[in-house]
Amino acid sequence: MATKALSFALSLNDLTNNHFSSNTPHTAAKVSVFTVKCSSSGGGERPWKNSDARLVLEDGSIWKAKSFGASGTQVGEVVFNTSLTGYQEILTDPSYAGQFVLMTNPHIGNTGINFDDEESIQCFLAGLVIRSLSISTSNWRCKKDLGDYLAERNIMGIYDVDTRAITRRLRQDGSLIGVLTTDNSRTDEELLHMSKSWDIVGKDLISGVSCKTPHEWVDKTKQQWEFSKVPGETFHVVAYDFGIKHNILRRLASYGCKITVVPCTWPASETLKMKPNGVIFSNGPGDPSAVPYAINC
């Protein structure tokens, strides 16, 4: 390890020269000598993280950022969300499948992650784009931090990026296709070509988020969040799962409904055989024109 030594000599006159008039007699200068050793090995780890990720948009703009969560390369449609909180619900909302969600609220991750606020059994979005990643969590329900949660679910995230500037582009030009990567071996031109070659239009994303078989939903909203009285009469509701959120089902159950959740390809004739009191068609991800079976069934 290379070490350099610097010696300093400091006299009392240097310190007091500006505080005495020229008519004041000076006493003999006292000199103190000390040595400072500075290491130049370069082996220590920086207390901050360098930019190690890029977001390349189809308009040609390149945004350097810092990564958290999973690593790799992912392509998706970039959209923004103006919610002040609720990032965990957004992460698990099936409607965001195939998309990078940019949060306009600059500070994300401060409440951590719990297992009560999830809207589905997994994360469906392609990536998360934020301005500032909280270095600590502060919530009584927190079980883990956001970075660990995304890494476990193989979801990419970036921070320390100018989300205001990207949002203005999205507001002006509409949703843009982007490529998110932590791979330094890929060139900007290669990533730009990937973004221009991919399109969410015409892609069936609903079949990947819908349930596979019919099932009954029974979970209700927890009592501390309840704000209505459960009616005495029970209504049978068939819910078509095109990417339905759990909280929709919880609220229906809390109102006393018997709920049967069916896949996106479930025939209408089978639904009529159940003789339900009502049918609900959920929202979902992607291009509606890519799922004609949702109408034809």
Automatic annotation (TrEMBL):
Membrane spanning residue stretches: none
The keyword Ligase is assigned to this record: yes
GO molecular function: ATP binding; carbamoyl-phosphate synthase (glutamine-hydrolyzing) activity
Sequence ranges assigned to domain Carbamoyl-phosphate synthase small subunit N-terminal in this UniProt record: 51-181
Name under which the protein is recorded: carbamoyl-phosphate synthase (glutamine-hydrolyzing)
Catalytically driven reaction(s): L-glutamine + H2O = L-glutamate + NH4(+)
Swiss-Prot/TrEMBL keywords: Amino-acid biosynthesis, Arginine biosynthesis, ATP-binding, Glutamine amidotransferase, Ligase, Nucleotide-binding, Pyrimidine biosynthesis
Species annotation: Glycine max
